[in-house]
## 1
Amino acid sequence: MNFKWEGVMPAVTTKFTSDDTLDLELFLKNVDAQIKAGVSGIILGGTLGEASTLEEGEKESLVTATVKYVSGKVPVIVNIAEQSTRGALKAVELAEKYGANGLMVLPPMRYKANNTETVTYFSEIAKSTTLPIMIYNNPVDYGIEVSLSMFEELIHFPNIQAVKESTRDITNITRLRNRFGERLNILCGVDTLALESLLAGADGWVAGLVCAFPRETVAIYKWIKEGKHREALALYRWFMPLLELDINPQLVQNIKLAEVATGLGSEFVRAPRLPLQGEERKRVQGIINAAMASRPVVKL
């Protein structure tokens, strides 16, 4: 499948039942809402997807069920986050086998690779597949920054096509554009910087709160691209308290609680995660309740 790295691409949550098995029915209900809202792709197996807790058979079920359900309407992107190069190459092989259309690739997990090791890691992955690749650049959470000079080496691989920009430095979008022009598509990876990133020239938004609020997320992207900045800004200001739930260690629990409020998910998480409790639960629920009470009607 040929596709462009642009638009809103949800990093979807994985749905579980009360007895800790996959809830594919509820999962696909959410995927359906994303497609109807106009997203440009579905990303599986990220942090929000609790991928580190999933067994291989469960990953296969999620990818194959999603590929079958979307039926070519949008690409299905699989996250690759492994500790070794060998593990990453195996994960890529399986993603291809299950029918993935593209890959979002993180640097090596746990080990803080140096620049040469990181470039070599990404290069080995790119050489092993024809699937298009988006490199996830998130030094804040993962301790490794993919610098401009490193991208200079990586763009020799034609299937390295995009970057999920999560450095938290908006000016890095301009640096990437100045250095590489349109060679790399740029997608914002931080919910609370999405509007600013899009105005700075980002092509898209890898979103989190979209899992609960797909229409609102797509509307912000669409209106910015159409030049309706006032409308986008008003909606973004309403959205911000919710978006801030994504930049939190309990982002999975936060977003799943928001999904409950909009009827697009359940609160079940996989241990060691637990549902929110006590004062933190009250705080997050209060934010969600306030947003729902003032939720605007969005017409796309």
## 2
Amino acid sequence: MFVLAANAFAQSAGNYPDKPIKIIVSFTAGGTTDILAREVANQMSIRWKVPVVVENKPGAAGNLGTEVVGRAAPDGYTLLANSIGPISINPTLFGNLAVNPQKALAPVALLGDVPNILVVPSSLGIKNWKEFLAYAKSHSGNLNYGSTGIGTTAHLISFLFAQKTGLDATHIPYKGAEATRDLVAGRLQFMFATAPSVVPLIKAGQLNAIAVSSKKRISAMPDLPTLNELGVDIATGAWFGLFAPEGTNPAIIKKLNETVVSILEEPAIKQKLLGLGADPIPMNVQEFTKFVRNDYLLWVPVVKASGAKPE
């Protein structure tokens, strides 16, 4: 019986995929997660000659899509494209999730890393890190920073930044793009925002960039220093990945990973993603699994210390 079951298991992996694949996106169409998922899905479909369909399941801060895939059959035909918030932050932020992504999902592949840029309104006249620190210290207790919502990376990176630099700053949560608009208007003093959302405003002279939160400088702004270079121990941002239900055949996960990695390594695809502000970083399954776990552990104390509560 065991031999027959093992043979069937191996055969199912060998024939994969032989029917349409669905990729659930936990956010609305048009966002970074959705864009990356559709690019990868299109390339998968071309290579495997089977339909790879993207379906948006937004809601509950990304938890709805996570729950759908976490409860799906672990056969490799229902996958999840998700980001740092639902995977690394929400398990601590919410505490009582119906489906815990750290337990119910198997990491497949990293799709892209999107850094956050520390930006200030150009009206402040702050051009660099030294000037920013001088301003921050002279306005201690009167600094406001914005975010796209409580518990988002924009909120928590800013909180972590204030903690590590000793800044006395107040968090002002917004719902989406209103935060950037208030920053441009000078109603906020600083903010950490994803590169794609602020690079056009920086180039237009409406915002000034001070530093980037990634481990390395970004190609779109090669002269912009990282926080690590400036002596601030922060090297994180927003990342996006592909997941399968826990219990999915490891051979299927390996095949998915190798396909995604080969897609990301294609020069045309890589340049397209870089143009979107997403840095494709190919990782094998073991590397991505370790990455996901370490990122979750990084944010647990930050979420708790921030006192953030679900909106």
## 3
Amino acid sequence: MRHIILFFIWLGIGQISYAQEVRYETVENISYVDETASAYAKEQCKLDIHYPTSGENNPVVIWFHGGGLTGGKKEIPDFLKEKGLVVVGVGYRFSPNVKVEDIIHDAAKATSFVMKNARKYRGDVDNIFISGHSAGGYLALMITLNKTYLEAEGLDADELAGIIPFSAQTITHFTARKEQGIDEKQPTIDELAPLFWVRKDAPPIILFTGDRELELLGRYEENAYLKRMLSIVGHEKHKLVEFQGYDHGMVYPGLPILVKEINRLVKEKE
């Protein structure tokens, strides 16, 4: 009996010691624009980074918040904290203060900042993933499929390890259509649609949506169309995950699967 008690005491101490080994810190309101930016850009274009203070080469996930490109705020989802990841929550400018094209450039600048500074926060520059919900997922797809946005920052979108958007708009975003005087229920595909930029050589893409019968407008079908077109052009690493029973606000059931998919993709590269 004494040996059993000692064993459990030892096990408990070991667990406490392990828990204390990895600590995390959050640095907030880091600007990713330079001094020539407008006052509005300096106010909005900031990011927060949650990272482990020990160890090296942790996968990085960049999270763009939702809000229709007209609102919202930068966030680091609680579920992603202390999962062995460097998590970056990005803020960006909003319509109608700026055009949708400008917001996409913000997303590219933020991603560029992370790609160039990941090592400072114990991140693995070879395993940087982009994610985000709704409008955030749209931004993730746009800066990956249309390589010109990151090229303007001196980077190659194909260096990203994977794109995992949550319920992203894949046709022209409704806010971009509004800029053109087009109703949100009138679907269009132009240069501001991820579908317009489908390409064979894009990084791995995993599309998350809510239930096709509960999602916002045709959001499931948009993602299914993108998946189909990726297959047609010969893109090899993509899939669509539908969270049945969940509507457009399917962030939580998606977050555990996001972590699982990041770990899988990292392991596949080893």
